[in-house]
Amino acid sequence: MTALDLSSPVAVVGTGTMGQGIAQVALVAGHRVRLYDAAAGRAREAAEAIGARLDRLVEKDRLTAADRDAARDRLLPAQSLSDLADCSLVVEAVLEQLDAKQSLFRALEDLVGEDCLLATNTSSLSVTAIGGALRNPGRLVGLHFFNPAPLLPLVEVVSGFATDVSSATRAYEMARAWGKTPVACADTPGFIVNRIARPFYAEAFAVYEAQGADPATIDAILRESGGFKMGAFELTDLIGQDVNESVTRSVWQSFFQDVRFTPSLAQQRLVESGRLGRKSGHGWYDYGDDAERPEPHTAEPAQQPAYVVAEGDLGPASELLALIREAGIAVREEEEDHGTRLVLPSGGQLALADGQTSVEFRDVVYFDLALDYRRATRIALSASQDTAPGTLAEAIGLFQALGKDVSVIGDVPGMIVARTVARIVDLAHDAVAKGVATEEDIDTAMRLGVNYPLGPFEWSRRLGRNWAYALLDDLHLRDPSGRYAPSLALYRHAYASDKREGSTS
Ligand SMILES: NC(=O)c1ccc[n+]([C@@H]2O[C@H](COP(=O)([O-])OP(=O)(O)OC[C@H]3O[C@@H](n4cnc5c(N)ncnc54)[C@H](O)[C@@H]3O)[C@@H](O)[C@H]2O)c1
């Protein structure tokens, strides 16, 4: 089924934030849409709100007045559930409670025709559990839209254990016909996006809790070096700390308190104190007319080194050598079997973040991973109390000579971008191995659902097959809680590549 079947109406039950957005999507795609909400008058209010949004689309020339009028005529608030009997699809977006959703679907099953597809927009409940209430759970599928549904293209099409392949296919094709980008996934906690995105927040909070850097600095590094649209602190202030924390908590609980998903104490304190982000006027940052956004730590100008010696292959950071030469700094390349470093004139060394700490080596400064060293406008450096001040100054001067702002953070293993990306890559491999989704769908979901600059597998390919595994293995040694333990899937991935490349290690 590729064409839209517009012969029978679509119903949206629960006409709050998500229901309204989903109804608008179906409406603009050409459907007749019935709106039903348990709260009296809510469906009518929702119809008016959708109408007002269509008016704005006309003002912005994104919809013709004639199409707006036709869409308004196709939108019908329903008085009771029985008004939905002739619908070919019912999308449920009621409150996030298992018994509420189960009793709704039970009632719907007695009303609608055999061919009617039932869909839930749940973000944290199990589609399988919801379907447990149905005589025919095969017709129930998860259709997980993202907020705001009319704008965000991603839809996760979730198959519960009992969902018929034909139901999932219908839902997938319907989402596509609505102009969305569907991805298929299994019914596991957090589905794709809410599962694989957890380390983006967790690692930023962990670096902050370890006194590695302040929120403004971590955000700036994630944006300007990592290539993320927003940093974790500013993004969670926008989402709402309560909303973000409850997703983390739900994924963590659903995985039987798996340490890889442990919520952040600092974020919990924020929620407990009512500092929920933009909506409450305070979160990690303060909001309001006279609130000032703190500046990220940025190092004072330092003298650039006259030359560097590059030992070994810098791997994901090899682009740096060209940049250093372009800045007029001489680079001497030397073969090196062990380690990949830049040696500075003082004798101190500069190494790409690798999951070890600076204090373990004599005179080493670490630099963080960048999405693209040429385009990055900021680079994080970390040093220990044992690093010679001259080495740190040379490292700062080197990156400043490349036109970068430099943020010096604490001696945190894996730094900020590197540990975040390594953990995202790991969870993505783990998810594929557990049958959650394909590599391609995971990449699509993370780019469209949370705006990542690259999907985890694209990123992993750029970094080299072994990179994330090696970094996490080092981190796991230094924090044996299990939080950083690389998954079996990532281990297999790294080991397979070693064998292919003929390594004996
Ligand atoms: N808000 C988001 O960002 C988001 C994103 C994706 C998925 N979701 C999921 O979408 C669903 C709805 O979330 P929301 O944010 O739109 O909630 P909301 O509170 O804005 O709206 C829920 C609506 O459902 C109505 N309702 C409650 N019980 C009902 C019932 N038994 N029958 C009919 N109507 C009923 C309420 O009156 C309310 O209008 C939840 O399952 C949520 O997890 C939310």
Could you write a compact summary of the structure shown?
This is 3-hydroxyacyl-CoA dehydrogenase. With 505 residues, the chain is α/β, with parallel strands linked by helices.
Mean pLDDT equals: 95
Instruction: Output the CATH class name of the domain at 10-187.
Output: Alpha Beta
What is the CATH architecture assignment of the domain at 10-187? Answer: 3-Layer(aba) Sandwich
Shape: elongated
Strand order of the largest sheet: 3-2-1-4-5-6-7-8
Q: Which fold name corresponds to the CATH topology of the domain at 10-187?
A: Rossmann fold
CATH superfamily label of the domain at 10-187 = NAD(P)-binding Rossmann-like Domain
Helicity range = 40-55%
Largest sheet: 8 strands, mixed
Q: What Rg do the Cα atoms give?
A: 26 Å
Low-confidence segments, ≥5 residues, pLDDT <50?
A: none
Enumerate how many helices there are, as a single number.
19
Please identify the structural class as seen in this structure: alpha/beta
- Any ligands, ions or cofactors bound here, and which? nicotinamide-adenine-dinucleotide
Terminal Cα separation, in Å? 51 Å
Q: Please give the number of β-strands.
A: 15
Range of strand content: 5-15%
Family: Belongs to the 3-hydroxyacyl-CoA dehydrogenase family.
Keywords: Oxidoreductase
Domain 3-hydroxybutyryl-CoA dehydrogenase reduced Rossmann-fold: 354-413
Domain 3-hydroxyacyl-CoA dehydrogenase NAD binding: 10-187
